[in-house]
Structure formats: structure tokens, C-alpha cells
Amino acid sequence: MGMPEAQPRIANVAAAPDFDAMHFRRTLSQFATGVTVITTRASNESVAAGAPPFIGITASSFNSVSLEPPLVLWSMATRANSLPMFRDGTHYIINVLSASQLDLCQRFATLKGDRFAGVDYRLSATGLPILSNALAWFECHNRSRYDEGDHVIFVGEVERCGVLDGKDGPLIFQGGQFTTTAPLDL
Ligand SMILES: Cc1cc2nc3c(=O)[nH]c(=O)nc-3n(C[C@H](O)[C@H](O)[C@H](O)COP(=O)(O)O)c2cc1C
């Protein structure tokens, strides 16, 4: 029996970042994403106080999680005004934007007031807005939420989804710019 071998030292907390927030943002922004608008119903109290019945935000943090059961995720800043309504609602719709919907991307990221005024949509099975001309949509049950840093990660269980028959390409966000896809010559 020899001497016990030294255990490798594994730190159980991360070292402080060696970069600032600007550098982190710029590095993250190299990852190209699609862009979604996520919609839900406003709370009864806010509607009673005169707010519009639906709310929505632009989000690029969408991703797939699981096929069986069908799960997707997205994350929302804790400082977003609509966080309480997304957290407390039973369902939301994730609308995948096309390149011709840059105006909706900007509208649902910045507009104060009724973001749905003048916007075309139809109502889903649970009565939530599916935006006309979106590339695709997912109607999700608000399955779980995880507080992480300055965001809340939402995992949605997809009850219904659909592809709309548009000819437009996807809206793509990369390096702080909006683009669309072009096929590579292979
Ligand atoms: C391209 C793009 C992607 C965005 N992605 C997210 C996101 O994933 N999560 C998020 O919380 N905010 C995201 N935002 C910002 C929100 O759309 C914005 O803060 C929104 O106005 C929040 O609305 P509220 O404060 O009324 O809830 C994104 C904005 C843009 C332009």
C-alpha cells in the first residue's frame, strides 16, 4: 500500500470573470439566432386597470430542449415589465419571425403601450395571439421556471405548433445586425 494519491483540486465556485459585460455581450453576439415574439395574456388586474389584453416581447433566447415530451426554452430578464405575467400565466405562444417582420421585432422590443395595435394575428386554442406571417409558432404550457443570474429560464411544454406557408426567409440576429439566410454553394 503506497501513499494515497493527492486528489485533483476542483474548485466548486467559478473564478471571477476576466472580462467586462461589453466584451461578454460582443462574444455572445457572434452566435447567430433566429428571433421570436413571445405572446401571452395580460393579468386580469392589469386589464381591469386599462392595460391591453395581450402582452408580448421580442426574444432571441429560444431553443429546443426535448422531443419526448416536446419541450422548448427561452429566458427573460428579471427587469422586464412583463415578467410577472409570463411567470404566472398558464400558456404562451412563441412566434418565429420571418425577415419581413423586422418591424415587429423592433415593436415588441421597444414600444410602450399596446404592442398589438394594428398587428394582424389570430387566436390560438387557448386564446393567445399567433402573429400572421410568422414562420412558425409553438403554443406552450408554462411548465417550469428557473431563476439564474439576471434572467429567468422558462421551459415550455408544447401543446400545439405549426409552420406557416410563407416564402420569406427567417429573421436572423448576429453580431448586432439583422440578416436572413443564404444557402451555401456546396
Ligand atoms: C433581437 C432581440 C432579442 C431579444 N431577446 C430577448 C430575450 O431573449 N429575453 C429578454 O428578456 N429580452 C430580450 N430582448 C429585449 C426585450 O424584447 C425587451 O426588453 C422588451 O421590451 C421587454 O418588454 P417588457 O419590459 O415590456 O416586458 C430582445 C430584444 C431584441 C431586439
UniProtKB/TrEMBL annotation:
<protein>
    <submittedName>
        <fullName>Putative MONOOXYGENASE OXIDOREDUCTASE, Flavin reductase-like, FMN-binding domain</fullName>
        <ecNumber>1.14.-.-</ecNumber>
    </submittedName>
</protein>
<dbReference type="GO" id="GO:0010181">
    <property type="term" value="F:FMN binding"/>
</dbReference>
<dbReference type="InterPro" id="IPR012349">
    <property type="entry name" value="Split_barrel_FMN-bd"/>
</dbReference>
<dbReference type="InterPro" id="IPR050268">
    <property type="entry name" value="NADH-dep_flavin_reductase"/>
</dbReference>
<keyword id="KW-0503">Monooxygenase</keyword>
<comment type="similarity">
    <text>Belongs to the non-flavoprotein flavin reductase family.</text>
</comment>
<dbReference type="Pfam" id="PF01613">
    <property type="entry name" value="Flavin_Reduct"/>
</dbReference>
<dbReference type="GO" id="GO:0042602">
    <property type="term" value="F:riboflavin reductase (NADPH) activity"/>
</dbReference>
<dbReference type="GO" id="GO:0004497">
    <property type="term" value="F:monooxygenase activity"/>
</dbReference>
<keyword id="KW-0560">Oxidoreductase</keyword>
<dbReference type="InterPro" id="IPR002563">
    <property type="entry name" value="Flavin_Rdtase-like_dom"/>
</dbReference>
<feature type="domain" description="Flavin reductase like">
    <location>
        <begin position="28"/>
        <end position="180"/>
    </location>
</feature>
